[in-house]
Specification:
38% strand, alpha+beta
Length: 405
């Protein structure tokens, strides 16, 4: 039986590294996964992921019951502490536990990789037609408010406000997009993660409209879609001078083909909601897109993009990006994701390349190798111990029985 800790540090570490804490966390993780999977039927995977696994506390639903559970952040955080304390700090250090410690290091490394990915990774896409070159990609579901001088054609200076600064605006609070270079500021007053411009004429008589209308239209808030990429945000805003005089006031919609324009400081300005963009350390020029169909069908069997990677110094490197052979360069991973236009839809062919910026991309492979090393070490150590015992047993002298006469 293990001795009870006597020091203050030991008394603190003992419950954090206990076996029963690990069991409780596993049960809670099972409940989060099970209940979250059931809620995906109504809410979709991205919203459930935010509520169950990217949260501290979860108000879960199990039929008619409501459960208060620790969220993914709390569960995985305590799991990490339990792993470090129980599997690496409090464990007895000896030749026989070397493999176990190595395996725990691999598991900790894998969890660290997941944390780095969650905190720093970015996923998006770049769409190119043949002959076109791009040096930035846009996120799949992240948005931003962007302002620029409408008269600029090249080297456009943009002022942006990320979606994280807009979330939570309900008309009672506001966020400012401002700069010392601007003679005005943009005041954002209400943000809807999923919205739809609606005519006031389509509102039933007696039904209240909880948002102002402009030109006979207002933004109606919609229920979140199951797929976050299908959500189209909307934003109410106004442009005002530094002394508080309003020069423009309206709403903007994420799918508007044209930005909202206004005049301020003797210039024309444009403001819009768009998918958040990120610059790449190099440019990509699509030379040729190739699609190989199944025999007798219009369904693609394989497709690829012949591109030219244009570095900052002007160096051009031809690269073939295929479905299972991405381009890896300068911290980016670029995959062949899709193409267009859809069958039967007229238009110029284009290639959709998925772009991933994930500093921990290689960590899962490394952690699996470390875990495998720990398991192999433990197996070989136990095997050698077993063979050693068998060898000692085989060389023991056989007792000689005495004369029975």
């Amino acid at each position: 039986m293990a001795k009870k800790p006597t020091t203050l540090i030991g008394k603190i570490l003992s419950p954090l590294g206990s076996f029963w804490l690990a069991v409780g966390l596993l049960v809670n993780l099972f409940l989060l996964t099970w209940l979250g999977t059931l809620e995906q039927v109504e809410k979709g995977i991205h919203q459930v992921q935010e509520e169950y696994f990217e949260s501290w506390i979860v108000f879960a639903r199990a039929g008619s019951l409501r459960l208060l559970l620790p969220g993914g952040y709390v569960t995985m955080g305590l799991f990490t502490v339990n792993l470090l304390v129980g599997g690496m700090v409090r464990i007895r250090k000896s030749r026989r536990t070397v493999g176990v410690i190595i395996a725990h290091v691999g598991i900790a490394l894998m969890m660290l990789g997941g944390l780095v990915e969650h905190a720093t990774s970015i996923y998006g896409r770049i769409t190119l037609v043949e002959g076109e070159q791009g040096a930035s990609f846009e996120e799949y579901s992240g948005w931003e408010l962007v302002l620029w001088d409408a008269a600029q054609a090249r080297d456009v200076q943009e002022y942006t406000l990320p979606e994280g600064r807009l979330e939570g605006l309900d008309g009672g609070t506001q966020r400012l997009l401002e700069s010392g270079d601007l003679p005005f500021r943009i005041v954002a007053t209400r943000y809807m993660r999923n919205s739809l411009p609606t005519s006031v004429t389509k509102v039933s008589p007696g039904e209240a409209i909880d948002a102002p209308d402009y030109g006979g239209f207002f933004l109606a808030e919609q229920r979140r879609s199951k797929e976050s990429e299908a959500d189209i945000p909307g934003l109410y805003l106004r442009a005002e001078t530094l002394n508080g005089r309003t020069v423009a006031e309206s709403f903007i919609f994420g799918r508007d083909k044209h930005p909202l324009t206004f005049e301020a400081g003797g210039k024309n300005w444009a403001v819009a909601l768009r998918h958040r963009r990120h610059s790449m350390p190099f440019g990509l020029r699509l030379e040729k897109f190739t699609k190989d169909d199944h025999p007798g069908m219009s369904m693609a069997r394989a497709y690829s993009s012949s591109v030219v990677q244009v570095d900052a110094d002007g160096t051009e490197v031809p690269v073939l990006i295929e479905m299972n052979k991405p381009l890896r360069s300068d911290g980016l991973i670029i995959y062949q994701a899709s193409y267009g236009p859809p069958e039967g839809v007229p238009g110029e062919p284009y290639s959709v390349l998925a772009v991933s910026r994930n500093p921990s991309d290689r960590i899962p492979w490394i952690s699996v190798a470390v875990i495998a090393l720990g398991l192999v070490w433990t197996f070989l150590d136990r095997l050698m111990l077993f063979l050693s015992k068998e060898r000692r047993r085989s060389v023991q002298p056989t007792p000689v029985q005495g004369d029975q006469r």
